[in-house]
Structures are given as C-alpha cells and as structure tokens.
Design a protein that fits this description.
Largest sheet: 2 strands, antiparallel
Strand content: under 5%
Organism: Streptomyces montanisoli
Protein name: DUF664 domain-containing protein
Pfam family, one: MST
Helix content: 40-55%
Strand order of the largest sheet: 1-2
CATH topology of one domain: Four Helix Bundle (Hemerythrin (Met), subunit A)
Oligomer: single chain
Number of helices: 6
Radius of gyration: 18 Å
Number of strands: 2
C-alpha cells in the first residue's frame, strides 16, 4: 500500500497530455505569430496559462501542500513567487528605486503560502495585477534592443527571462501537481 496518488490525466486523445487539444486554451488554431516580439509574448501567455491549468481544481490545502520535502515549494507558493517576480521585473524597467516586496521578507512568498482560501484568492489577484502592470510597463517599448533601467537591460533579455522563469516553474508545477493528486501531462 502506498500513500502516493495514482497517476491520471484528463486527456483522452493523447494520454501524455494534460487535456485534449480541443479543450486546451493554449492550442493555437492557425499559424504561429509573426515576429520576435509576438512570439515571445505568445510563449509567455502559454506558460502563464499552463501554470493556472496546473493549479485548477485544487482546494487551498492542496495548493499550499509542500509536496517535495524538505522544499518549501508549493503550487500556491509558485503563484505568489511569480507575482513577486513580476513586481521585481518592473524595477528593472524603470530608473527609480525597487518596489517593496509584496510579501515582506525574502522567501515569504513560499514560506507563508498558507492553506487558506483568502490567501489563495489574494495570490491570484496579486499575480493578475502584477502581470498586467509589468505588461503595461513593457508595452511602451517595442524595440527589443532598447536598454532600460539602471542596469541597461535589453527589452529582449527581459522578455526571454520572463519566458524562462515561467517555463522553469511550470516544470516544478508538473511535479508538484503529480504529488498532490496524481494528475500528469505536459
């Protein structure tokens, strides 16, 4: 007898997928976008959706569960972390002082990811707000080679880093979700 959940997927067409292509909001019906900026934004949107999909259908306790001890990482912690990271990226864009941390001290995004529906709701609101604010701050900069902020980071580098951050954490989300309830799929 094992306390590990049985592996399963909702997909019926391709058993290694998270969901069937017809039900997948990431599926693009047509050609990929034209141009580097549109491609980077498309990948970022896809990874943002993937993170949300990996969290769907779970309650507050499951979202806050630290599935891979001794790590403090949880799905809820990832949502909170990405809200914090989006906020940090805005500091790279501007010339002013960095914005204060959303959750206070370092690692509070993970450490304080409590199994409370109010904390879950707040985390999703924080993520949406911070994503929208960072998107808006970057929208004025169409030249991917333009250098921004005190560090002179190129818009291209910032966009690639955003895609990388979400992609890496979606990989974590795959493992965390499988530990929570056994659901698998890319």
């Amino acid at each position: 007898m094992s306390d590990r959940p049985a592996r399963w997927t909702r997909a019926t067409v391709y058993p290694d997928m998270w969901t069937d292509p017809a039900d997948d909001p990431r599926e693009n019906q047509g050609n990929s976008p034209d141009g580097e900026l549109a491609t980077l934004e498309d990948y970022l949107t896809s990874y943002r959706l993937t993170l949300r999909m990996k969290c769907e259908g779970l309650d507050a306790e499951q979202l806050a569960r630290r599935s891979v001890p001794p790590s403090t990482m949880s799905l809820l912690g990832l949502v909170r972390h990405l809200a914090e990271v989006e906020r940090d990226w805005r500091g790279w864009i501007g010339d002013g002082d960095p914005l204060p941390k959303l959750y206070g001290r370092r690692d509070a995004d993970f450490d304080e990811a409590a199994a409370d529906p109010a904390v879950v709701d707040a985390a999703y609101r924080d993520l949406e707000r911070e994503q929208a604010a960072t998107d808006a701050a970057l929208a004025a900069h169409h030249d991917l080679g333009e250098r921004l902020g005190k560090e002179g980071i190129a818009v291209r580098e910032l966009l690639v880093h955003r895609v990388e951050e979400y992609a890496r954490h979606c990989g974590h989300a795959d493992l965390l979700r499988e530990c929570v309830d056994g659901r698998v799929g890319q």
